[in-house]
Task: inverse folding
């Protein structure tokens, strides 16, 4: 295994990690790293993620002068829990996530241009916030976006099963025992990244602060995710978005549906798509150097062109 880069396992000395209170009093764990005038990037991670997993990407953009802000979504990481079981990622509604993103965006004092970035569930919520007018970035980057869920049964049957299971018991109970999706015979690392060293960084952070680790989603979260992505794919407002959007899509993604992402991209009037093949799993920015460097180069080129 390669020796981890120091930036991946240390909060930068000139960055801050603090509690930030939402309008309804919820305490979000927030990361801020002031830049050198290039602009601001607000980065949102995926379901169950923590912002520490993306410190290496943050360092790349920070070297280019960008200010970086991120926060753990309500209910995960260091931002508290929404279920009695702290291991379960629960949500009765995705609306509070959008409200939190809007509140942080309005409070954010980063210089222009301002860019919204999201990975997986974070990308879905960034796009939803754009559709609702909750944020108004100069550009957006959606990385392995959760615009459709992978299900062993297919999306329609998967949503029906989730609705049934939510009704039959506690909606906040875990939908499965472990891994990133049910009935998967693939190891978790294979689903996320082929880079063993970067994969190990996640566990290292959890060992430093066990309370930030989250497990599987609840049945209620699954119902919300199926419904929200389905509605988003059919949203007529997609065709009216003026924001330039770059989408990075992994063809062999085992967690989210790349076909759904491409379907959405075709509806966006100012979108660009960069596709990755079997060389990339779900976490494109935490893949091997060949994949990661190509992804960062695509983002850099997009930003240089769209928000010079």
Result:
């Amino acid at each position: 295994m390669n020796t981890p880069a120091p930036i991946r396992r240390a909060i930068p000395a000139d960055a801050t990690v603090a509690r930030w209170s939402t309008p309804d009093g919820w305490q979000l764990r927030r990361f801020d790293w002031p830049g050198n005038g290039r602009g601001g990037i607000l980065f949102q991670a995926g379901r169950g993620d923590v912002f520490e997993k993306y410190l290496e990407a943050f360092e790349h953009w920070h070297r280019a002068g960008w200010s970086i802000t991120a926060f753990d979504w309500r209910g995960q990481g260091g931002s508290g829990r929404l279920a009695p079981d702290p291991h379960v990622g629960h949500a009765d509604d995705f609306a509070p996530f959008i409200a939190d993103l809007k509140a942080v965006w309005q409070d954010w004092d980063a210089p222009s241009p301002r860019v919204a970035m999201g990975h997986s569930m974070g990308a879905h919520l960034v796009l939803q916030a754009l559709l609702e007018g909750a944020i108004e970035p100069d550009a957006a980057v959606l990385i392995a976006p959760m615009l459709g869920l992978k299900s062993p049964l297919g999306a329609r049957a998967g949503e029906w099963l989730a609705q049934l299971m939510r009704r039959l018991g506690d909606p906040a109970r875990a939908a499965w025992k472990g891994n990133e999706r049910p009935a998967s015979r693939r190891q978790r690392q294979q689903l996320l990244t082929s880079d063993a060293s970067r994969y190990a960084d996640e566990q290292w952070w959890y060992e430093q602060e066990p309370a930030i680790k989250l497990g599987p989603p609840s049945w209620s979260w699954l119902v919300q995710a199926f419904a929200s992505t389905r509605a988003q794919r059919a949203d007529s407002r997609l065709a009216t978005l003026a924001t330039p959007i770059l989408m990075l899509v992994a063809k062999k993604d085992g967690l989210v549906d790349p076909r759904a992402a491409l379907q959405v991209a075709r509806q966006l009037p100012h979108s660009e798509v960069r596709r990755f093949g079997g060389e990339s799993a779900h976490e494109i920015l935490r893949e091997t150097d060949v994949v990661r460097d190509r992804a960062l180069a695509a983002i850099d080129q997009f930003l240089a062109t769209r928000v010079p």
Q: What stands out?
A: The domain at 6-306 is CATH 3.40.50.1820 (Rossmann fold). The chain has one domain: 6-306. The radius of gyration is 18 Å.
